[in-house]
Structure formats: C-alpha cells, structure tokens
Records
---
Amino acid sequence: MPKRIDIYHNTIVAMGEGILITGADPAYPQRVRGNAVFAAKPISGGQQAGNVTAPYSAAAQYLAKPGGTLGSTLDLYPLTGKLQGATVDTSYALSLLDGELDFNKTPRSSTFYGAYSGDGVNPGWRPALAIMP
C-alpha cells in the first residue's frame, strides 16, 4: 500500500484519466498540487490544491501544441497568461532532486501550474522519446 504520495507540477493531456490516487494509506499525505491536467477525468483522489483542470478537448486553449506529434511538433508549453495564478505551496518538494526546477531545468516559480515555469514561447526542449540533452 502506498504511503506518502506527492504529484506536483505536471502537465498531463489524456483522453481518459489524468491523475488517479486510490488505495493509499490515509495516515500519510497524498498531495496533488500545481498540476495542469486536461482529461475526461482530470484528477481523482488525494489532497488537491492549486491545480488547473479542463477537458481533454480544451488543452489547445492553454498549451502551445498539445495535439502535435511526440518528438516533433508536440509542445506542452503554456500559452501566454493561461497557466499562471496564485502561489501553490510545494515547499515540501524543495528537498527532492531538482525539486526547485521546471521541465526545462529552469528555476520554478510557484505561480505557474504544470511542468513549465513560464509561458509564451518554449525556450527549451520539447517532449520526445529520447534522453533530454
């Protein structure tokens, strides 16, 4: 049985379920914070706070190119002003390896939701089935 679960600052685009927490030990925290989830069932379970959720079909209203091809045109970087808001407390993650960095390995701002700490034009690497340089 899982104990402590921390799911934070992810960008998820899925036709079905985005994040599902079930069967975890209730004596431990199961936190879901600061994520941007676009799915038919975005988030189920856990202690949810500061997440942006919307249907799968709405992902293009928030992200640069969510329908693109993995390793080519797929770009999950936020559109300007779409995934920024109130500060989300993820201070518990700062002690983790790269816990203070976003997907592009830049310092994270707690006012951005999802994997990236920025918006507009992606200055970094796009998701691919390859090792990030």
Note: Strands lie at 5-8, 11-13, 17-20, 30-33, 36-38, 41-44, 47-49, 52-54, 63-65, 75-78.
---
Amino acid sequence: MIGGLLKSASRWALVAAAGVIVGGMAMPSAKAADLGGDCCADLEERVAELEATTARKGNRKMSLTITGQVHRMVLWWNDGKDTNTYYGLDNTNSSSRFSFTGTAKVSPTVAMGFDITIEIDSGGTSSKVSQFDEDGKVGAQINGASAASFNAANNDSFIDARRAAWWIEHKDLGRLTVGRYESAGAITTIDLAGISAGASPSVILVNGSFLLRDKSGAYTGIAWANLGDPASAQGRTELIRYDSPTLAGFVLSASIGEAGDYWGVMLRYAQEFSGFRVAAGIGYEDVTDTQTGVAGAAGPVNLGDPALNGEVKAWGAGLSVLHVPSGLFAQGHYLAADFSGTGSTAYWAQVANKKDANQWLIQAGITKNWFGFGNTALFGEYSKNTDWGAGNGPAGRSFASPVVGNGTTGVSINGVTDTDMTVYGAGITQNIDAAATELYLNWRHFSADINCTGGTGCVNGKAQTEDFDAVIGGARVKF
C-alpha cells in the first residue's frame, strides 16, 4: 500500500518539478521546456531507496489495515493487611494489542477478508500480579526453594494470537469465519456507556491472582479469581462460525470448534428509537473438551481418559439502555454455568466436582460531553458471584495452604460448599475524541462469604477473610 503511494508520489513529484522549472523560466514552447533525459535521476534514485526500505503488503487486491491499542494503568490495592501500588501494568480488562485486517470485493454481493489480532502478553498484567509478585511471574508461590525471583527476567512468549481467521460474506446470506476467533455463546454486559476499559463485566481481571487474607493476616489458598466468573465474553478457539445479516436489528450467530466439542449459539439486538439506544443479547454454549492429563504417576500423557472428562453448559443474557438526550444509562447481565462430569475442561475454570455457579452485574450512571473533549461517564456498579469456588456435596472443594516462608504464614480452607463474592464500585471515564483515547479512574470493593468444613483457616464453618479494595487509573489509546 505504502509502496504504491510512493510510486504515485514519485510521478507527481516529477510533474511538479517540471511545472516549477517551466514556470520559473517562463518558456514559451513545449520544446523549450524539454528538461533532458537525466535531470531528475537523483530524485528517482531517492524515491527508489525509500521504496526499498518501506513495508508493503503482498498484493493490491486485498486491502490491509493496521489497528490496535495500548492500554496501561496504575493499580493501588489493599488486601485488609497490606497495601501497595503497581505502576505501568497492562490492563487485562482490554489488553494491549494490534490487528492486521483486510477485505476484498469478489463481486458486488460477496466479499472476503481476514483478521490477525496479536495480544501483548509480556510483563506485568493486572490479572497475574499479586501481593508478592508485581511482575505476574511467580503465581501462588510466595516463598521457599521453588519460588522464582521477584525480579527475574520475563521469559514468556511476549505475544499471543487472539484471532487468526479468514472470512467470506454475502450481503444477503451472512458471514462464515474459519480459524481462531470468538465463539458464539453466553453473553454478558454490552457496554453502551463506554466504561469497560476500567470496569469489565468480568470482575476478576484486575485482582484475580491476589490471595485472600484471613483475620490473622495469614494468606489463604483461595485467590479472588476462584470466586468469580472467569470469562467476560465468549471464549476464543479454533472454529467455524456463522453470523447472519442484520434483520430488524437482530443478528443470529452459531459456532462449532475444537473437535466438535465446543459449540454455541447467540442472538443479539441493537436499535435506536425515540431517543433511546438499546442493545441486548442472549446466548448458550456447551463445552466437552477434555483436559489433557497424566494417567498415573509414571504413566504417559493421557489424551482421553474418561476420568478426566468434564462438561460445561453456560448461558448468559445482557441488556443495555442509553437515553441519548440526557446521557442516562443502565446496563447489566445474568450468567449461569452448569458443571458436570468427573474431570476438568479447558474452559470456564472447571475442576472436578465443581458446583454450578452464577453471576449478575448492573452498572448505571450518566455519560455526556460536558467539556467538549468527548463523553464523560460517571457510574456506579454492583455484582454478585455465587458458588464459583465451591464443590458439590458435603466434601466440597479444598484449597491447600500456599507455600510460605520467611516469616509469612498460610492457612488451608477445606470442604468449601458455598461461596459468595460481592463487588461494588464507582468510576469515571473521560473520552478524548481528538486522540482516540479513554482516561479512567475506577474503584472496586470485594468481600467474600465462604462456608467450609475444615482446614486451619476455617472457624465455626466460615472462612474468616478480609475484604479487598482496588483502585485503578489509566488510559486506553487506540490507533
């Protein structure tokens, strides 16, 4: 694309140069304006050098567009016993990424294209950091011989493929997508207010790796991610997906992925009438993808042990309403997951004997362009997350004490039969339209109610845990 533009520019540069010289000399005839065969050789040589060092796409038939975002933030946290501030983290609510997309017209009614989206997966990210790891590399290992250095070099893969797919679309029949892409499935909050950069529908993407503390200050084996919905949208996998054309505001989607063991459907709606903007959706997905495991202490890698089989059936519905003249809005969702089978799947954080779980969230406020830079959104939010960390039956689910040392203590919590995490918060998002940027400042408060039957951290049938507060401020810059 750029190379083609430079070639065009070189031709115009020659014409312009000839025009300037002719005008300056006021030659009366075309013959007198003959500049000779090599007067512009230097200009052509320079343009050729530039073209040789310019990135260009492979052909002129398929368009190429490069887009993306840089999203970084500052996190202040308080776990009831300690507090700290981490700087420059990538915000997992909407990670830093870049995309290569393209389209080409096959006919007046048919188009083809592709989407390659690469996520930056290096350094400290908000969902990986914890009380004892500002880099997101150590995980639940606090201290001890196996713990990594807190300042160890980051040896992760740097990037992760979010999307790598091609598609073909007929304007009357819809679009077929093949490759790695978002599946159709359970729908959560549809963000009409533009606040999701700092306030994702999944409430564990900022503090998920932080461990809960008990009243004595000891670390439990439970992370906040164990108590909340692990997905803020449909999962990404290798699949075939169909999206229908828009009909009266409705779009129907369906997908099947992996080896046929991950499928889903969803129906979405968007419309504006009488000053109200409305978006809604409902979806369902079924996952039976077997978690690869080991069939014994010294056995080979197991590729299909029935004892490891699991299944998740999940559905979710969202509704969002924005009154455009006033800027008042309300948006939210309800999500439920049914866990069955004797083992684990690679999705929805399923483990053996996991109890069915649900989550709901509501956000409300006002978004208005009061200052001329772009919309300013002020909002509050409230969420309940039930039984994501619980196990079925009287045995429940057990969380071992984390590995500790150097004066740090840990406690186990066993027989967890019920969990309830309450989240509430508030925030402000300022759009800077001229720079395609969102600035935000958000606060969320987390509290847990955990029923248990044993372990050093279980007292009178309850885990005695501290609340958690997170304040984040940052910017999402799009390009």
Note: The first strand starts at residue 65 and ends at 78.
---
Amino acid sequence: MPTGPARPPIAFIGSLSADEEQAWLDALRRAMPQERLLPAAAIADNHEVELALVANPDPAVVRRFDRLKWMQSLWAGVERLVAEPAFDELPLVRMVDPELARTMAEAVLAWTLYLHRDMPAYLAQQRAAQWLQLPYVPPSRRRVGLLGLGVLGVAAARRLGDAGFPVLGWSRTPKRLGDLGSVTTFSGSEGLMAMVSRTDILVCLLPLTDQTRHLVDEALLQAMPAHACLINFGRGPVVNLPDLVAALSARRLKHAVLDVFDEEPLPAASPLWRHPHLTLLPHISADTDPASASLIVARNVRRWRESGQIPQPVVDRQRGY
C-alpha cells in the first residue's frame, strides 16, 4: 500500500537530565506513535520543524527552529519563554493536566497539615529531647488563604475545604468558583490585603509575572496575623526572600515552607538551609506526570493535524501565563 510523505519531525527541547528526557520521549512516543519525535540535537534539518515540545528549554535552542508554528509546554511554568521577546509572535500552549492539579492539591493539603499540626515545633523539640504537648487547634479555627484561583488553586481549595479548613482565595480579577461557594473570594490590591489580614496559613500558587514578582513583600507579611505561616508552591521570585527572612527572624511569622527559589538548585552555601523557621523542599510539590501529560499533548497534536488550528489554552503574553 503506498504511503504519503513522512510528516516533519516534532522537536523535543528541554533542560533535563538524560534519564528524564528519555522518560519523556518514551511516554510521548507511546501516546502518539504516528509522529516522529526527536530530541533537538538529533534533527538534521531545523527548517522543517513546525512544532516543538518544550520543558524549560534553552531559548537559544528554540531560536534555531525558525519555522515553528507553535510550541507545547510540558510544564506548567512558562515564564522563561514568555520573557523572550523573540517568541512574542509564536503561540505557546500551556499544559493543563488534571493529574497535575490533583498532585498540587495533595501537596497543599499535606504541608498545610504539617503547619497546622505544629510539626516544625515537634521536630525542634525532638532535637532538643523535649517532651511537650502543644495545644490542639481544630481546622475549623485555622483559616487558609490561597494566592491564585486558577486550576491548581481551585483543586487545592476543594481539598482544604473537605479537610475542614475555612478557605479564602485571591485572584487578580474577580472569579466565580461554581460549586465552591464556601470559599470566600477576594480580588485586586485591596482584596489582597483584606484576605491576608484574615489568613493563618498563606499558600502561594501564583505564576511569575511582572505583577506577581515580589508580591509577597514586607507590607503583605506585616498585614498577616501574628505567628501566621507561609507556603510557596508558585515561583520563587513571587516572594521577596529578604523580607520573608526578616519576618521569620523577628518571629512576626511563625514558619514558612518553600519549594521554589530564585535560583535552583538552591546553593549549598545559602543561609536558608540553616534557618530554624524554614522548611525547604527541592521543587517537588507537583511534578508533571509524563504518562498523563503525554496523552494531553497527543490530543493537541492530533487536533492540530486535523484542523490546522492551534490548541488552547494559548499563553496570554500580556498576563504572562
């Protein structure tokens, strides 16, 4: 049976270890066996590539493929590519994976409970060989505020509400949450301060944009109740680290859990490692699952092949996500 011309290859461009890259390639090839998916370095003719799958790529490598029609991000974070003026006209499709939302909601609940049940204090007591029972506070008396009410924030709000926490949520513009009517929502700059002033545990799920950089600063931390806690699962630069460390050292803030940083991996010489009121995680709150994400990518590619239309959601360059 005669066959048509081979499809142009799809480029895989990422800053991953060899094992991570191979795991992604294997999952993607299983999900779309009809496509030719190749690492960028293995493509002989860069000019024939129309689509790139990207995972925190080196922008210089992306620029080599000068006939791209669109890019599919494999990760939720896209700020590195959004910051590249050379890609302003190139559609970038965000990864929206229900499994990623489930994983993030699980992490938000887990580390909220870690702070709620005073695990940092009990760990310090263990190291000091102290046997001391701290007073128990029911979740109904611990208010959790979410910075960001996108797909991840809504999933986290649902898990927190099911666990008995009163949930507050903030977004840049007003949002209706449908069946999550129990969540008290806020928006805008005035709404931000109103929410944090009522928040015992603040969870940041915001992407990094010009508007969110250093959003969590001295003024915001000062507005929080005394001995409140912070969790940052968004992006490192959303939190002004010197301001956070000052608030922790002065004991205005009780504890913070950080999973994302301005520089990753966090340098071994960083004083953050040794701060007694910080819990540091190596960016593990919600990794993209190659198996589930590959099915979403395969669906997007198939629709594009069939219709010629760029899949949604395409990143809004003005908003930064």
Note: The radius of gyration is 22 Å.
